[in-house]
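Pasting as-is:
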Amino acid sequence: MLEPEDTMTRYDKKLKMNVLVPCHRVIKEYNAHMGGVDLTDRFIGRYRIWIKSRKWTSRLFSHLLDMTVINAWVLYKKVSTMKGKSQKDIMKLANFRTELADTLC
């Protein structure tokens, strides 16, 4: 059996305060990075490529294309921030998708 290797703080409703709870390193790693998946799903849901098809390959391709665009936009935001651009000068996701589509066409 795995031994707890680390501790995390959690709120205890009965005590009404934060307490230290033992946890495995894997759980701590998952909790640290699970927001990225949720964020990607949220952005894909907002601007999804709608292709009606019965073929699962077409649906998979459009989903992978959506994920690629989201990852490219996140990378664009990260690089722009590192270069010192202000938040108002960084393109929003809808504008990024439009510019990408214009460039590819």
